[in-house]
């Protein structure tokens, strides 16, 4: 059995609190922080996602196109007036999205009535800026009220987008809760707990130091799984947890499990949902290494490409097929990636001969 290197601890930023000592020493339960100790990210006002930007642009452009229909006598006039209106609408929408994205933390801290006032005021100001630039050109685009009308329209459209954002946030709560429960069930599988404890017990007499390392890794996995650490963590923290899990399995499987890490330091800062990699490497062990008498190889690779982070987990497949799973892990990962990054994130799976490959794509 080959000795494995110590895996670096998860950075302190991922820990909600420092471990507290009890009369029986520091325990797993002492390291668990209450949920209210961890601030939640202002997800409702996170308008930096490509999917949200596209939907907001389509909504405002659609409303503008419908409004122009009331004043355009024919199709050609509708096209001309619609194009002219877009000269004001598009810069106004982009300016409002940028301002809301930059101020998302402050907006999320306000009470709901104050949020409506702030967001609609930003919409009015964002619409006034391009309107004030177009009005001196004398294009007769803005009607008899060249500044009042755009301001009111900007405030109304901003209020409409805010209403959609609130409904979107409320609709995601049940799915987020269900995904969190599924993730917790996946993380605390009894067979993994019992196998790890049996491994540690077997090492207590022959190699106490390694037994201590195994229990430390197990305690860290459970600490993170049972602690609400917010909506996002860094990819570096996720890789560290996956390394702890595979380090435990490395001791159990010995030479049958070979792990290769190709990690790009530039990808470490990417934001991902907590415990997004662990179920994927666990699947690689269960379906690629465990069923084979010869064991298998797991390769984990991170890299940056065109402003996105690609995470690839590949495992070899033995001659004997593994017992089919429920697909809960992949479904859970895909759902949580969509909740966090919308269309900017991807999850792809494919089998190539005797290799099964999972690839995550998230924005950097």
Total DSSP E strands: 7
Please compute the radius of gyration using only Cα atoms: 26 Å
The residue-averaged pLDDT reads 75
Strand content: 5-15%
Q: N-to-C terminal Cα separation, in Å?
A: 38 Å
Fourth CATH level, the homologous superfamily of the largest domain = Histidine kinase-like ATPase, C-terminal domain
Shape: elongated
Characterise the protein shown here.
With 364 residues, this protein is α+β, with helices and mostly antiparallel strands. Helices cover 54% and strands 12% of the residues. The strands form two sheets. The protein has a five-stranded mixed beta sheet, covered by helices on one side. Strands 1-3 form a two-stranded antiparallel ribbon. Helix 1 packs antiparallel against helix 2 and helix 7 (208-225) packs across helix 8. The longest helix is centred in the middle third of the chain and has 40 residues, at 148-187. The two termini are 38 Å apart. Residues 1-42 have low confidence and may be disordered.
């Amino acid at each position: 059995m080959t000795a494995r290197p110590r895996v670096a601890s998860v950075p302190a930023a991922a820990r909600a609190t420092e471990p507290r000592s009890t009369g029986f020493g520091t325990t797993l339960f002492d390291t668990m922080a209450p949920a209210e100790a961890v601030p939640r990210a202002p997800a409702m006002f996170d308008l930096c996602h490509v999917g949200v930007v596209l939907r907001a642009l389509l909504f405002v452009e659609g409303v503008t196109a419908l409004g122009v229909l009331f004043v355009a006598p024919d199709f050609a006039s509708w096209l001309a007036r619609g194009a002219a209106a877009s000269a004001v609408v598009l810069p106004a929408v982009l300016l409002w999205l940028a301002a809301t994205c930059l101020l998302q933390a402050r907006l999320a801290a306000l009470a709901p009535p104050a949020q409506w006032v702030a967001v609609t005021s930003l919409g009015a100001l964002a619409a006034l800026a391009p309107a004030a630039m177009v009005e001196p050109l004398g294009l007769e685009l803005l009607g008899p009220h060249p500044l009042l009308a755009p301001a009111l329209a900007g405030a109304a459209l901003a209020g409409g987008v805010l209403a959609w954002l609130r409904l979107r946030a409320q609709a995601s709560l049940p799915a987020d809760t269900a995904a969190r429960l599924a993730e917790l069930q996946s993380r605390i599988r009894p067979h993994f707990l019992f196998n790890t404890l049996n491994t540690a017990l077997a090492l207590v007499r022959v190699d106490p130091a390694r037994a201590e390392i195994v229990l430390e890794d197990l305690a860290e996995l459970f600490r993170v799984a049972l602690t609400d650490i917010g909506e996002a963590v860094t990819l570096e923290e996720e890789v560290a947890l996956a390394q702890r899990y595979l380090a435990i399995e490395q001791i159990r499987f010995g030479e049958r499990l070979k792990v290769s890490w190709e990690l790009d330091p530039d990808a470490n800062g990417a934001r991902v949902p907590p415990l997004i990699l662990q179920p994927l490497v666990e699947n690689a062990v269960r379906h690629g290494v465990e069923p084979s008498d010869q064991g298998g190889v797991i390769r984990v690779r991170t890299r940056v490409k065109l402003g996105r982070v690609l995470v690839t987990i590949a495992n070899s497949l033995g001659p004997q097929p593994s017992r089919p799973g429920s697909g809960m892990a992949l479904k859970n990962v895909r759902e949580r990636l969509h909740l966090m990054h919308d269309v900017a994130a991807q999850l792809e799976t494919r089998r190539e001969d005797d290799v099964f490959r999972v690839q995550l794509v998230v924005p950097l």
